[in-house]
Structure formats: structure tokens, C-alpha cells
């Protein structure tokens, strides 16, 4: 697995009230990842990008909602999210990062 692939695996952090609470209380951080990403790729990408030790990775396929636009019906894109649990005493600070 090359470095270029690792940089393409993680697309963005997924931040909501639920994920913010999970990251503070349990050390679980949530990321939006590529649709073809595997647990091993996500683990290596997080360890390389943020210089932390990953304890476990869970991956969830999120199905896009069906929405109506007047008489026509549309569908949002499906996407994949990864929930990463870090080792004790380690943390990722998204606020301190520069974009």
C-alpha cells in the first residue's frame, strides 16, 4: 500500500454533536472515508496522518436519503464513515489544525 493511496482514503472528519461527545468521552473519532476503503487502509492512514496509535476501526455504509423535489424524486449519494478508537491518552485536535 503506497503513501498516495493512504492520502486518498480519509476524505474529511465527520463532526456532529454525537461524534463530538464520543471523541471527548471515549476517544472515538469519526471520519468520512472513500467508498472502497478497508479497515486496514483507514488504520494506516490515521496513524500516518495524525501520528497516533489506533486501537480499533469500525466502518459503516451510510445510505443516502431519498428526497422529493416537487413531483420528481431524487436520492443523495451513499457514503462510508469510519469510527476510529485511539489508544489511551492519545487525541486528535481538529480545531488546532490549519486548513
Please, could you describe this protein's structure?
- The chain has 99 residues and is an alpha+beta fold.
- Helices cover 29% and strands 35% of the residues.
- It contains 3 helices and 6 strands, in the order αβαβαββββ.
- The strands form 2 sheets. It has a 4-stranded antiparallel β-sheet with strand order 1-2-6-3.
- Helix 1 packs across helix 3.
- It starts with a helix and ends in a 13-residue tail after the last strand.
- 16% of the residues are buried.
- The mean pLDDT is 91.
Write the layout of secondary structure elements.
Layout: H1 3-9, E1 10-13, H2 17-26, E2 28-33, H3 39-50, E3 54-62, E4 66-69, E5 72-75, E6 79-86
Antiparallel strand pairs: 1-2, 2-6, 3-6, 4-5
Helix pairs in contact: 1-3
Amino acid at each position: 500500500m503506497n503513501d498516495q493511496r493512504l492520502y486518498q482514503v480519509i476524505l474529511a472528519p465527520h463532526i456532529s454533536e454525537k461524534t463530538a461527545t464520543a471523541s471527548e468521552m471515549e476517544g472515538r473519532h469519526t471520519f468520512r472515508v472513500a467508498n472502497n476503503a478497508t479497515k486496514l487502509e483507514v488504520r494506516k492512514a490515521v496513524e500516518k496522518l495524525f501520528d497516533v496509535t489506533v486501537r480499533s476501526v469500525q466502518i459503516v455504509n451510510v445510505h443516502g436519503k431519498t428526497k422529493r423535489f416537487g413531483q420528481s424524486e431524487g436520492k443523495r449519494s451513499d457514503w462510508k464513515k469510519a469510527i476510529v478508537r485511539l489508544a489511551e491518552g492519545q487525541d486528535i485536535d481538529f480545531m488546532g489544525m490549519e486548513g
